[in-house]
């Protein structure tokens, strides 16, 4: 029996794309050990994988967020990196006892990158979003959609060093972390590498290092410059898997009302002004609006909920999208792919730099509209929803991308690639 270890970071946007893959590997007779924090236990165990919790300090965005400025705060990235290193000894102790045949890790998991080198076993890198390349750098050069921040870019097809004169974010997300905090963390990381007798690692390696097999959960047609990647890179499209923690939901609308879904995801969603703006924009429009406002918003501070709105902190997104005609989204890749999987045109209001790239990509391919965060008002939101829901070209483009996504292979193709890489027969 082949034994796989999956190491991930505690973030829904990174865990959710892997669930169907874990289930597929288990269904093929493999032993799958999945390492992440306790909050994901139910989701992991539902796949048939063996859940291994690791412990790490909590990290996240500030409790109070200003109007959308784009990008996680620098300290949040440092916290994430530091938390990863604290979890490493616990993970390594279990891995050394289990001796997996192949290690699979998310590209943001510093523990996964280090564990692959410490154990010296074949490793597969997972990316829930883009693989950095020069085409993303070209998108970045066109300017941001997120106020005050350039989008996240990358240098070239074999991204090992940034090009001369590249904008800072072209050097990867960690290039923006400067000062004594980052210096102290790099020293901590150097000591950790010395402890395990491996070559020094920098946070930049998370962004630029590639394994012999790299799997991206988007279709090649959505990846800028996707046609230029070599056989190390497999674009499988989204792996749709029912959420185990999704609440029950009943859509309460009149039969003739189209559904508009609004969500800013699970991280940068503490945006009360944005949700108030949605109330203003659609309170008297012929839409039934379903809105997920996140768990950090005090709903009472948003004012009276309009009669045509259903709101909740968290909603079963797949179920809602299956019934929606338009989707206002932050442009997180899970949400983007899930919206397109169900054939829903998008209005992207990005909250982070990578989401600015997605906003531009959605606009360029004609899958919806991208809105700048510092130019939003009720009229702009209303007109954007009207356009994407009525424009025949946008709707055809979305239908074509929906077919592309559903034909991309998903978890089955990812499992085939991993099985071949690890010397196992594909199914």
Automatic annotation (TrEMBL):
Sequence ranges assigned to domain Erythromycin biosynthesis protein CIII-like C-terminal in this UniProt record = 298-403
User: What is one Gene Ontology biological process annotated in the Swiss-Prot or TrEMBL record?
Assistant: antibiotic biosynthetic process
One Pfam match, given by its short name, reads EryCIII-like_C
Region Disordered, as annotated, extends over 150-176
List, as start-end ranges, the regions of compositional bias called Low complexity: 150-159
Query: What keywords does the record list, in alphabetical order?
Result: Transferase
**What domain of life is recorded for the organism?**
Bacteria
Say if the entry is tagged with keyword DNA-binding: no
Give the similarity note.
Belongs to the UDP-glycosyltransferase family.
List the protein's name: Glycosyl transferase
Q: Which species is listed as the source?
A: Dictyobacter alpinus
Source lineage = Bacteria, Bacillati, Chloroflexota, Ktedonobacteria, Ktedonobacterales
């Amino acid at each position: 029996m082949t034994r796989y270890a999956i190491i991930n970071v505690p973030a829904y946007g990174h865990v959710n794309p892997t669930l169907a893959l874990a289930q597929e590997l288990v269904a093929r007779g493999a032993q799958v050990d999945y390492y992440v924090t306790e909050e994901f236990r139910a989701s992991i165990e539902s796949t048939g994988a063996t859940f291994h919790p690791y412990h790490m300090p909590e990290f996240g965005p500030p409790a109070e967020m200003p109007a959308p400025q784009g990008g996680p705060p620098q300290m949040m990235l440092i916290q994430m990196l530091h938390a990863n290193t604290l979890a490493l000894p616990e993970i390594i102790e279990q891995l050394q006892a289990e001796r997996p045949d192949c290690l699979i890790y998310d590209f943001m998991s510093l523990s996964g990158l280090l564990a692959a080198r410490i154990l010296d076993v074949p490793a597969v890198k997972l990316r829930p979003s883009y693989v950095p390349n020069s085409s993303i750098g070209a998108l970045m050069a066109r300017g941001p959609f997120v106020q005050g921040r350039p989008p996240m870019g990358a240098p070239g097809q074999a991204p090992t060093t940034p090009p001369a004169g590249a904008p800072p974010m072209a050097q990867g997300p960690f290039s923006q972390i400067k000062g004594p905090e980052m210096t102290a963390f790099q020293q901590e990381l150097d000591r950790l590498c010395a402890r395990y007798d491996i070559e020094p690692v920098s946070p930049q390696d998370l962004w630029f290092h590639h394994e012999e097999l790299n799997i991206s959960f988007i279709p090649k047609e959505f990846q800028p410059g996707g046609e230029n990647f070599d056989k190390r890179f497999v674009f499988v499209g989204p792996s749709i898997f029912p959420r185990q923690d999704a609440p029950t939901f009943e859509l309460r609308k009149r039969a003739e009302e189209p559904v508009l879904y609004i969500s800013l995801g699970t991280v940068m969603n503490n945006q009360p002004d944005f949700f108030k703006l949605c109330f203003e924009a659609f309170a008297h429009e012929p839409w039934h609006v379903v809105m997920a406002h996140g768990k950090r918003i005090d709903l009472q501070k948003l004012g009276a909920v309009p009669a045509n709105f259903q709101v909740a902190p968290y909603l079963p997104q797949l179920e809602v999208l299956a019934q929606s005609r338009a989707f206002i989204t932050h442009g997180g890749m899970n949400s983007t792919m899930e919206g397109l999987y169900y054939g829903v045109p998008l209005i992207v209001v990005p909250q982070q730099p990578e989401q600015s790239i997605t906003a531009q990509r959605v606009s360029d391919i004609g899958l919806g509209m991208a809105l700048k965060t510092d130019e939003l008002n009720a009229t702009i939101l209303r007109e954007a929803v009207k356009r994407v829901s009525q424009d025949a070209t946008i709707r055809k483009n979305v239908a074509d991308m929906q077919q592309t996504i559903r034909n991309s292979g998903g978890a089955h193709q990812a499992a085939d690639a991993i099985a071949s890489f690890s010397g196992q027969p594909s199914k």
